[in-house]
Amino acid sequence: MTKVNCLNPIAACGLDLFSDHYELVESMENADAVLVRSASMHEMELPESLTAIARAGAGVNNIPLEECAKKGIVVFNTPGANANGVKEIVIAGLLLASRDLIGGYNWVKENASDPDIAKKVEKQKKNYAGNEIQGKKLGVIGLGAIGAKVANIAFRLGMDVYGYDPFVSVDAAWSLSRHIKHIKNVEDIYKECDYITIHVPALDSTKGMLNKEAFAMMKDGVRILNFSRDTLVVDEEIKEALASGKVAKYVTDFPNPAISEVENVITLPHLGASTEESEDNCAIMAVKQVSDFIENGNIKNSVNYPACDAGVCATAARVAICHKNIPDMLTRFTGVFAKKSINIANMVSKSKGDWAYTILDVESLVDEDSRAELETVDGVVKVRIV
Questions:
Q1: For every residue of 20-64, which 3-state class applies, written as one string?
Q2: For the chain, what is the radius of gyration of the CA atoms?
Q3: Would you list the DSSP string of 137-175?
Q4: Residue 163 forms beta bridges with which residues?
Q5: Angle at 172 between CA 227 and CA 177, to 5 degrees
Q6: pLDDT at position 201, please?
Q7: pLDDT digit string, tens, across residues 309-322
């Protein structure tokens, strides 16, 4: 029986996909797999039994990825499962940045009991007038599942859309409208666009990328949207840009004390993927990925180990090995089976940075001694007989 612990509530439509061979448990102790949304795992003690963690969402900054890799724990996420929900709130953010809908709404609420409110509206509404987005230039930084959807819908709303992503995937490229202008230098986005929306992960190379140097290149009165990660924007430096008028509006899904009360900042309480549909989609994808890994050893959408798919095992046994990406590992693995006269019918091995993953389909059952010998190979961190 495979034990699964949920650190956060996970949609039932996903959990219902687990077969009778899985058991949902209250504690992570002795769990084989963990499903998580926002709970921070950095201070948690990870049990030796743990083989997989699935984040029902895209961001994984709440998971200790390197520690997991060293223990042979494969960490999954669910890219694209919440893309439509985030896309829709980004479009709402574009409108909030353009039209002072919040200011107008607040005025009406404050004056709701005034018997002359209908007359006063005609004089007051000029204070909340704004701009239309049609014909304006939108720069989309990051053309993954979310960025590509935002770019496409913005074009259909009449915007002139510029897209920047030096690492755009083939799938994302195919999904982009041919009308999106592909930009090779992010500085051209800064210089040309009236609106900028950012959709990149929080990496060492992206943290703080929207800073005073970037703001200095931008048009006066630019409007910036951040529904990706708060650390991509330097709070103190965007406050200066807002005070000077360089940035007209900043819409973010990440409130904090530094910017939440600043004038011309619109903060939302991390609602990007908080839709029933997004949570369902993430749960379904997370459960499917964990199940395929537990039952077949296949890896899809891992953030710390490489994608590796050998399909369904058609031989006597399958061996799945998490190991360091160092030379001569395959020779050592095959040597263990050669000594036992076990024939290898199929083998898939992939690497990702410092780590690698190998699947071996063999034509004889694998005993505990063989598994233990594989674990003694220098660089191996975990061996599973699937």
A1: CCEEEECCCCCCCEEEECCCCCCCCCCCCCCCEEEECCCCCCCCC
A2: 25
A3: EEEEE--SHHHHHHHHHHHHTT-EEEEE-TT--HHHHHH
A4: 140, 182
A5: 95
A6: 86
A7: 999 999 999 999 99
What does the alpha-carbon distance between residue 209 and residue 164 come to, in Å, rounded to a whole number? 14
Segments in the chain forming alpha helices (H): 12-15, 65-70, 83-98, 101-110, 117-124, 145-156, 170-175, 186-192, 212-217, 235-244, 276-296, 329-339, 368-375
Q: 380 falls in which pLDDT band (50, 70, 90)?
A: very high
Span 202-225, pLDDT tens digits: 888 999 999 999 999 999 999 999
Q: With left for phi above 0 and alpha for psi between -120 and 50, is residue 131 left, alpha or beta?
A: beta
Q: Model confidence at 193, in pLDDT bands (50, 70, 90)?
A: very high
pLDDT at 168 over 90: no
Lookup result for tokens 């959408």: 301
pTM recorded for the entire structure: 0.83
Q: Kindly tell me the number of DSSP H helices and DSSP E strands found in the chain.
A: 13, 16
The Cα-based distances of 348 to 55, 312, 329 in angstroms read: 25, 13, 13
